[in-house]
Amino acid sequence: MILDSKIPAGPLAEKWTKHKFNSKLVNPANKRKYEVIVVGTGLAGASAAASLAELGYNVKAFTFHDSPRRAHSIAAQGGINAAKNYQNDGDSVFRLFYDTVKGGDYRAREANVYRLAEVSVKIIDQCVAQGVPFAREYGGLLSNRSFGGAQVSRTFYARGQTGQQLLLGAYSALSRQVANGKVKLYPRSEMMDVVMIDGQARGIVTRNLITGAVETHTAHAVLLCTGGYGNVFYLSTNAMGSNVTAAWRAHKRGAYFANPCFTQIHPTCIPVSGDHQSKLTLMSESLRNDGRVWVPATKETAEKLRKGEIKVNDIKEEDRDYFLERKYPSFGNLVPRDVASRNAKYVCDEGRGVNETGEAVFLDFRDAIKRDTKAIIASKYGNLFDMYKQITGEDPYQVPMMIYPAVHYTMGGLWVDYNLMTTIPGLYALGEANFSDHGANRLGASALMQGLADGYFVIPYTIGDYLAQTLPKSIDANHPEFIKAAEEVKNRISQLLKINGKKSVDYFHKKLGKIMWNECGMARSAEGLKKAKAEIKELKRDFWADVKVLGTNEELNLTLEKAHRVADFIELGELMIDDALSREESCGGHFREEYQTPEGEALRDDENFAYVAAWKYMGENQEEELHKEPLVFENVKLTQRSYK
Amino acid sequence: MQLTLKIWRQKNASDKGGFATYPVDHVSKDMSFLEMLDVLNEELTEKGQDPVHFDHDCREGICGSCSLYINGKPHGPLQTTTCQLHMRSFNDGETVTIEPWRAKAFPVLKDLVVDRSAFDRIIQAGGYVSVGTGGVPDANEIPVPKTIADLAMDAAQCIGCGACVAACKNASAMLFTSAKVSQLALLPQGQVERKTRAEKMVAQMDAEGFGACTNTGACEAECPKGISITNIARMNREYFSAVVSSENL
Amino acid sequence: MSWVTKTLKSTLGRKLIMALTGLFLILFLTGHVSGNLLLFKGDGGEAFNMYAKFMTTNPAVKLLSYLTYISVIGHVIYSITLNRLNKSARPIGYAESGASTNSTWSSRNMGILGTIILVFLAGHMYSFWFQMHWGDVPTVTYSGEEYKDLFSVVQVAFQQVWMVALYVVAMIFLGFHLSHGFASAFQTLGLNHKKYSPAIKTLGSIYCVLVPVLFASMPLYIYFTS
Asked: Which of C208, C192, C190 lies closest to C104, judged by CA?
């Protein structure tokens, strides 16, 4: 199959406008005859469900949470980018586009990114109109900050809870449509499969998480807004429930999975404290504006520190290595996420890590406090310092924080065309669940932007083009395909319940996470990846032979829920490794040890790897097939990123 | 450290339920409370017993999923969410009692999991500004005084966990409802529907079976996000002025 | 349902009734305690008896007294319905309670405090209000006009140590009831403001001590001075 990205012809800045005009429209009287399923109710899902319902479509919205308001979009702290140029500092749609393509290390589609930058300005208008309480200046106008090393102030924020406020805004719009009867909400329902009729997505199979009932739902189009798959690493900043299941089941039905190995590792997370660790907590990136990152200059000092023989504050200035400032004098502690993360890993690999596990570096505010006073630092980061203290028991005003990189976001996802449609007709993927806008690395404050852009301003136009070409006939819920899909789901459930092995689901998840983190994490090598692939194959066999899932299907059963998710993570893990292995270059979050500059920086290979890797599922235990969508850059010049 | 856990176990909504006692050893003070329960659940699974079910998700204090009533207080001894509570807040040898939120409007589904959809229905009754996607004015068209925007944000921080209901002797949802009423009443964008919103949200709150407010302030004291009861006063004001002056019969 | 009944049936409407009647009763208590201060005048009860007559005969005061009866009855009835509603909102209680760390005892026990005050009020009204209206009260004559000698009834009553004790204890309960009720009524009415709420709180703390103390000092004064 040739991947048709359906990028409209014409100049970059006119593509979206022209495309909207060229898209077919659904007759207003006919809209109520179409049903659309939205899976996931985070930023992308809630905004899409609300917007489509406003247009008149009948929407069914599914979430495995008890309420749409719990989606993990809520946890985004920093902010949302928009090319408003309210600050008169030279921002523009083109600059946001340019920064995003460059930040993504030239592995994103130009047209998609430009559209993202273009609609970004409307997102802010929309959110303000909904009553989102963005930060404001004394004059009453919106406040901006510069974020993630951007050269302009284009980030809008609501304290440290921007994601929460945006999600609650979208949730309120969704709630209004629920009240209007245009959206039917299905909370505590997990999507288990996509139902295809004549090659088109025509519905889904769900499991009611309270009763265990396996249900089928019909629709003329299905939208997957199910977020990222960072939990394949077990430990990540994702929520405990975040999973790949919906996307993975769609993949197995024929949706190509693009760039699965592109994962973002965030440099400032609270380090692991022990085997009991269930998730990692992100500390806002803004901390690097004032904190200085360092480790002891020698392995010996670090060892003494770990053994508790010396105290951190007793380490003399000359015995400290401010490695980011040393290696990147012009950007210093503010280098992009991937660079900061990788360098933290290097110094820890050298044995200079600072906590008991040896996997942590210091983020020190001593000098900032000396320079600005404690009061000023407290006013900027007080809540973060408190959070840190609550979790670790240590006071960052007195001793430096300890941080370590953690998996944060997945740029890869289901392959979609310009219309956000996957390779399955009628099946769309929005937000983090798709791959389209961030290339190999996502810039700070861009995830919220993309989720809302897809939901509010892209899908309402593009879905019409598809539906207009589909007859508004109601779909037969008793079609053999629905019955067959439901049966398959039930079989899988009983298969899991029957195994009754010895190892818990978490055992497998942790083990998978370790393999992925060690070999497909911050640095990857052909040798390690090959080893990991064999280990995962073995893990999969072991899982289906020895996992222990207690209880029955007909009840709230958290172990069963998790078993489904982990089974899918294991399969995804293998694909990620295939992808990482086949991409013989380093770009963005994907760093292959074999491909680096003499200074140890990522070495891209634009000649051979400027493409999207889209993988086709070929059947149980078969190698997946790689399809390439070449990336064409007409508006930006490909350069090597340098932060020296 | 070692602890004795006294946990409410209930098979499903119709089961009567009761307390079960579990000893847990090897609790590290660096564990979060939920990680301590994870350890217990791993042990229970190993023994072939049904793990303790509880709601949780983000584990960073923002999604509002976690909802345990620990030693007589929602989210335990600190004014934070259960997921942010760490075991260093407990002593070796202590007995810890864990119960679900208790309210008619929050029926128990299993063990410590309760149904909080009543909150969603309160929002659906009017916790929004009725603007569709697109066609809205520029974000900077209407200036909002910083003090007002800050007050609105204070209210908007609610995570919908339900600790206010759990803490209130009347299982009242006034703090939750008032936080949303306040946020939108403060901002210019919420003015158009201000009266109708207050009337409808209060009516829905009552219909769900939550209790009334005795102004004890327990909700505010236990709210992990520090939502103030000044919001309840504001909601009362909004409601009273709405019922006497709105056009709704 | 008309909008009025709908409002009065709502939780907020019911709370409004509680607050308005409560505040009116606070006003009543203020008047009551001020008038009764005449007991301390040391004129053998002349001023007090004249005041008592004024209070039972003046038409404006009559109107106010009916309002007071209505307030008491309304306050009680609404507290009963609210209490039932509140109890039904949590059919299964907690095994463990840490409420003492998040709220004051009186705020959680307004119903109990109110019930005790109500019982006291019944006795109090029988002892004086009922006697004054329909009882066998001796009369005195000042400047040729006849007055019921309520003062002597009071004097006789507070010779009994148990009566004194009862009144003093009742006033303690009243103090606790007011300690929460005063500021709470303002909060319910929505009168919460950065600038004024601290003053209301302070006023409430003074009021809940001052008024019960003044009331309690009357039986004590009479008991110890006669």
From this structure: C208
